[in-house]
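Dear Dr. L.,

I hope this message finds you well. Following up on our conversation about the binding site, I have prepared a predicted three-dimensional model of the protein together with zinc ion. For your records, I am including the exact sequence and ligand specification that went into the calculation, followed by the structure tokens. Please feel free to forward this to your student if that is useful.
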Amino acid sequence: MDLKTFCRDLPKIELHAHLNGSLSRSTMLHLKRFYADSGLEDNTNAFFDEFQIGAGDCRNLSDCFQVFSIAHALTSTPEALAMATTLTLQEFHSDGCCYIELRSTPRNTQYMTKEQYVDTIVHCMQKSSIHLSMLSRLIISINRSYPVSEAEAIADLAIESYKKYPDVVVGMELSGEPTVGKFQDFVPALTRARNAGLKITLHCGEVCNPEEILEMIKFKPGRIGHGTCIHPKLGGTDDTWSALCTSKIPVEVCLTSNVNTKSTPDYESHHFKYLYEAGIPMIICTDDKGVFTTSLSQEYRICAETFSLNQVKVARLALEACQYIFAEDVQKTLKNKVQDFINKYCLSQ
Ligand code: IMP
Ligand code: ZN
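The resulting structure of the complex is given below.
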């Protein structure tokens, strides 16, 4: 089997995908048409080209955060949000994903409350599990550039939603522009959510900030996102790197996202190689497949090609990812699924 087909057919686990960053061109066109047909203003004349960020894009990391408002303008009603969620889940499924933890920041809009926002996504996930051979779970996001009071309100909502939908809502996460806001301010909200039973993942080390990285590792999240600037050669320090090596917190690795936002100069210099050599658990993820024009199978293929991994090693990445999902009750089923694929297609290697 050629590598492209192998990476597509391999049952994969997606653990770091922001809903509004994952909207494909086709989904956005559907949404635009839906707004036009409903006589709604989408409040954006932005072309899709502005939403996508390619490798040679001259926008800096901060500029990259502006593009999400384009997607937000197209997911402001419950119907549009449902359409965006359903189409995005279908795309991950078509790409060979067998389990996804989709994350999103609940928003009050002119047409819905934050509660309705969460309910809408959860209902789409419940419905999609009937039609798709892919399990989906929700992680509720806190945006670090919003006031702390908003984070507290989202923690309340996350706890309520977890009680209401324990089979779908699994975690809470901290994301948003990494140069804005202080991690410590969000610790009370994150701790409350964790004490209520939600798992936590943190965007960590997207920019050079060793002090914050150490605080985050000390918090002991279930996983961290990116971890770009933790190794001493990449903006971290001996302390940040040894804290990660000791804690062995699984890292959600998003290769194309890091290259396209220029957090990493190119694939070859990506910190994947340091994490891999140090035996730190990793999960290959997309981050924002719409913004970065990628897919989960493409991320696996790029990883294999860049770091010369054979198909057995690539499949092992998918198998190991099963251990780090937040829905512990389905870990075994997923492991069996990936293992069956390995037995069928990798035994000769
Ligand atoms: P949403 O939460 O579904 O609205 O997805 C978009 C949001 O995800 C953005 O507004 C950011 O807060 C967050 N996000 C997406 N990509 C990144 C990233 O690479 N770093 C930090 N936050 C991100
Ligand atoms: Zn992210």
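In brief: The pocket of zinc ion (ligand 2) is lined by residues 16, 18, 175, 203, 225, 287 (CB under 6 Å).

With kind regards,
A. P.
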